[in-house]
């Protein structure tokens, strides 16, 4: 499978991605645990059907020491015993924040309150940002049909 076109090689596409990637650096350096960032990125990408991002975040998380068991269970996190209460709150916020159109009210107050119970304001800002940025990146990759499988950990810096 080939991408519909080289979004990264296009001046407009590359410029847009440059700004999205720079925002992701702020999130990466935030107090939100790196493990939580990767779990959320993976779950958002699974929901959106972004093979490229699923490949990337699985490999980056593995490279950072995440267990295969936890990565395999992200898709069914509600039934899995391997996630902390804080991680579960982040995954729930990621799901509701990604599936906004599925709920008349968007993200419920209960889901937000649960996340706020586990994360301070800086961490919440990073959590909201990673969810929003991953949704944007997923959409780019799905729209251009970016193929999955060739990503190398740390490829984008």
From TrEMBL:
Chain segments annotated as coiled-coil in the UniProt record: none
Alphabetized InterPro entries for the sequence: AhpD-like, AhpD_core, CMD-like
Source superkingdom: Bacteria
Segments forming domain Carboxymuconolactone decarboxylase-like: 26-96
Pfam families registered for this protein in UniProt: CMD
PANTHER family: 4-CARBOXYMUCONOLACTONE DECARBOXYLASE FAMILY PROTEIN (AFU_ORTHOLOGUE AFUA_6G11590), BLL7811 PROTEIN
Name of the protein: Carboxymuconolactone decarboxylase family protein
Organism whose genome encodes this protein: Streptomyces monticola
């Amino acid at each position: 499978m080939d991408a519909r076109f080289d979004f990264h090689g296009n001046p407009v596409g590359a410029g847009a991605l440059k700004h999205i990637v720079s925002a992701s650096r702020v999130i990466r350096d935030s107090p939100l645990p790196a493990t939580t960032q990767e779990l959320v990125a993976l779950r958002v990408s699974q929901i959106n059907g972004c093979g490229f991002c699923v490949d990337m975040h699985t490999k980056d998380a593995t490279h950072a020491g995440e267990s295969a068991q936890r990565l395999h269970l992200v898709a069914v996190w509600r039934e899995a015993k391997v996630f902390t209460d804080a991680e579960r709150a982040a995954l729930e916020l990621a799901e509701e924040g990604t599936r906004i159109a599925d709920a008349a009210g968007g993200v419920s107050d209960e889901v937000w309150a649960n996340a706020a119970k586990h994360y301070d304001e800086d961490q919440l800002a990073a959590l909201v940002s990673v969810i929003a940025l991953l949704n944007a990146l997923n959409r780019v990759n799905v729209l251009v049909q970016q193929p999955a499988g060739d990503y190398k950990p740390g490829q984008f810096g």
